[in-house]
TrEMBL record:
Residues 1-31, 67-91 are annotated as: Disordered. The lineage of its organism: Eukaryota, Metazoa, Chordata, Craniata, Vertebrata. Signal peptide: none annotated. Residues 69-78 have a biased composition (Polar residues). It comes from Gallus gallus. Pfam families: UPF0184. It comes from the Eukaryota. This is Bublin coiled coil protein. The gene is BBLN.
């Protein structure tokens, strides 16, 4: 599907052409369709990776929110406990 550098691999016919070139531009309809299929496949793969990354980031965000709330609650409880005990003498 891809060459060694991730470039699309297009099978070309004799003299570097796919044999279906009528315009002389080097790419026939079959080769163009193959490249478009590969591009579409790559875009689908990127979309899947993006969706997965988005889900992971949402999960991380929610986890961070929960941790922050827990930390705030502990901090409030700690400060309320210190207020009830009164000022502590210096050590």
């Amino acid at each position: 599907m891809s060459g060694p550098n991730g470039d699309p691999h297009v099978a070309l016919g004799p003299a570097g052409r796919d044999g279906g070139d009528e315009d002389g531009d080097g790419f026939g309809e079959e080769a163009i369709n193959s490249m478009l299929d590969q591009i579409s496949s790559c875009l689908d793969h990127l979309e899947e990776k993006n969706d997965h990354l988005h889900a992971c980031l949402k999960e991380l965000l929610e986890s961070n929110r929960q941790t922050r709330l827990e930390f705030q609650q502990q901090s409030e409880q700690h400060s309320m406990g210190a207020d009830m005990q009164g000022p502590q003498p210096p050590v």
